[in-house]
């Protein structure tokens, strides 16, 4: 039952926050309570139109409410207070539905103005966590207590480990996304263009575009080599061969992040073979996961896999070792093999060594690696090896020494196919991994 798991989630959050305050106070601060702000609504410059709102991650950790100017007050040993601001407004619907399964956990104080919070705030030394120092000032919180870094670091680090409640949200977000991916693939095979495939995904998930955890990447052919390709071409597709779609769903604030690559029969046979091997490589990587493993080692393993495919498909001469030593796999997979996932699609704390915030930088040969953590039980991250033919990365190599190892004729033939990415969401368990994505694949 969601409610029981949510209750446990709130108990766990209270433990984490209590421990975080003890920790930072032992380091010289004197914080008795925290007030977490969902955020303020922003507008486009010189315009009355609001920029789509996304609540602060640490606020979403407590409450499934994606609205500006909501506040969560936590003081150890006391029932958390939810300050729900509902402005008097006849232009927009400002009402917020409070479901019993989560509402029961809080003392709810309903107000119409942010400035009224100060009067209702318990008399404690309270830190403000959120995006808007002006709001903190308005409430009467001194600037020293706005986003204290030791506290933020502690909380960021802990977000990587999920509760049962959070895992449920992530599973549902994956199940929904796979409905969308099945519809998108069908639409591609029927000859649809990028715009139509994008709509097919949203329809199958029953979501509005702004409810997505990130901008859908829907790329046909050569555009699939642009990692975060953002357009949706409406021109009628003329015999497209490749679809790369990276798209997820959001459930109570938690996002899935799933990528699938599909080909039809007219794709280059080498590319078809590469795709089949990339599917296998992704599963091989998932099978290596266990508590205690450094995420960086999973990335290295992916680069080895890419090197192996380069040799096996005559895309490169030389040995796997030569290619790795010369960082040639990175020309075909310039991103990291994945990232932490949860409330934010690239979740916080990926480069933290510990609760203190000490940083653990990615290796020099892979600066884009977003996760350098050691795997722990109930940590959730993506595994997403990629293989792309990216002209701006490859072309300069024609004139370089290491370019002599590359089969340019074949690269030229494969440019129109773009690239491949296969991405699942993974939870670390005691003896391996739970694949939060594949378990819903039909
Ligand atoms: Mn991803």
Describe this structure in words.
This protein is an alpha+beta fold. The protein has 2 domains: 2-158, Creatinase/prolidase N-terminal domain (Creatine Amidinohydrolase, Chain A, domain 1, 3-Layer(aba) Sandwich), CATH 3.40.350.10; 164-440, Alpha-Beta Complex (Creatine Amidinohydrolase), CATH 3.90.230. 34% of the residues lie in helices and 14% in strands. The protein has a 5-stranded mixed beta sheet. The protein has a 3-stranded antiparallel beta sheet with strand order 6-7-10, with helices on one face. Helix 1 (2-26) runs antiparallel to helix 6, helix 7 (164-189) crosses helix 8 (194-205) and helix 9 (269-288) packs antiparallel against helix 10. The radius of gyration is 24 Å and the shape is globular. The two termini are 25 Å apart. The mean pLDDT is 96. The protein binds manganese (II) ion. Manganese (II) ion binds at residues 257, 339, 382, 384, 423. Manganese (II) ion binds next to loops.
At a glance:
With 442 residues, the chain is of the alpha+beta class. It is 34% helix and 14% strand.
Question: Which regions are unreliable across 5 or more consecutive residues at pLDDT < 50?
Answer: none
Assign the CATH class of the largest domain.
Answer: Alpha Beta
| CATH third-level topology of the largest domain | Creatine Amidinohydrolase
Strand order of the largest sheet: 4-3-2-1-5
> Helix count?
14
Key descriptive features of the protein:
442 residues, alpha+beta, Creatine Amidinohydrolase, Chain A, domain 1, Creatine Amidinohydrolase, 2 domains, 5-stranded mixed sheet, 14 helices, 15 strands, globular, binds manganese (II) ion
